[in-house]
Amino acid sequence: MWTMGLVMSVVGSVVLIATKSRKDLRISAAPLWKTGKNEIGSSGNFFTDIVDDWKNNEEETFKKFDVDRNGLLYRSEFDELVASLLTDPYGSPYQLSEEQKEELFCHADPKMICSPVTKKTFRLLWKNWIRKILSPVTALIIVDVQNDFISGSLALVNSPAGQDGLEVVPVINGLVTEIPFDVVVYTHDWHPANHVSFVDNVALRPLHPNYTKSPDEVQVLDIVHFDDQWGTEQTMWPRHCVQQTWGAKLQENLVVVENPVKIYKGQNPDVDSYSAFFDNSRRDHTELEMELRKRGVTDVYTSGIAYDYCVGFTSLDALDLGFRVTLVEDASRGVVDDSIAAMRTALLDKGAAIVNSTKVADMVSGRDRNARLAQYLMRTIKV
Ligand SMILES: [Zn+2]
């Protein structure tokens, strides 16, 4: 079980400071959500000025950057295009290294030999890269903002990192009420009573002969090795989010939009499911990928509980599936400091962006065109 005394003695004071600074960030940033796209006005940046009317600009764009009018974009011309495309909301270019610029240029060539971009290649690049950057189709995934993780049996505040899950609620409410996502997804951890992850269920299944503890010695956060056909290794948790109980309900102050997508995961008693896409052994999947695909979603924003488990694994799977992924860091809270840091690194290494909620409105509108997401997209598309 969670040991409150240990938590307080080890991390109590640090957590107080961290919590305060996160709140301050959120409060100071709130007015930026009100920055409507039209208030920014003409920036002098080609793509920023066409972002609201990009559809018929393919020809015009090619001509703009084909300075010598030879029907090809050479490296220097393509670099100019990238410098104009990958900019902050005010039209200032994000700084890319030479290696990053070269990678973008070479991936833009279907033969990958870094030759100049022809009009034919540009047509594909316009459709699969530039258009998605200027006009992303966006989904906000709100992961497991449920009572048990906030004030119930698995309340984050009692976990080793001592973070408060309740703090995600106003940040997420700000996102869903201020920003026009194309779809908003609410995921639910949704377990049957005999679920494999509950520490008080450990005696329900045979333990692997090599596992050294007896069922009475097993504690929360132990990784138990079960003797089943899959060789399941399962982190133990307090009983939580049992289907149809108060603990499995969304936190009452969380704003639920009209026509949301709701996803229920972890329903198989024998396998846990951190990701909202797949169970932990990828034996089964939810409807989430289908729901995103049928709406043409290009970009996924993730938030909720817990950063190092369900938010993190949902984000990693979204990347595997080819979506551009942005984790909204101040809209998420985690369980253990070290695993939060490890998840952060894993997400960045795989091509996700990690931002504060104040950045999201301009990213969703196509005015803030994140270089990291552009680079990830170029790697995943077939030009
Ligand atoms: Zn669970």
Describe this structure in words.
The chain has 383 residues and is of the alpha/beta class. It folds into 2 domains: 220 residues, Rossmann fold (3-Layer(aba) Sandwich), CATH 3.40.50.850; 98 residues, Recoverin, domain 1 (Orthogonal Bundle), CATH 1.10.238. Helices cover 38% and strands 13% of the residues. The protein has 14 helices and 10 strands. It has a 6-stranded parallel sheet. It has a two-stranded antiparallel sheet with strand order 1-2. Strands 5-6 form a two-stranded antiparallel sheet. Helix 11 runs parallel beside helix 12. The longest helix is centred in the N-terminal third of the chain and has 26 residues. The radius of gyration is 23 Å and the shape is elongated. The N terminus is likely disordered. The chain binds zinc ion. The site of zinc ion has 6 residues, from loops.
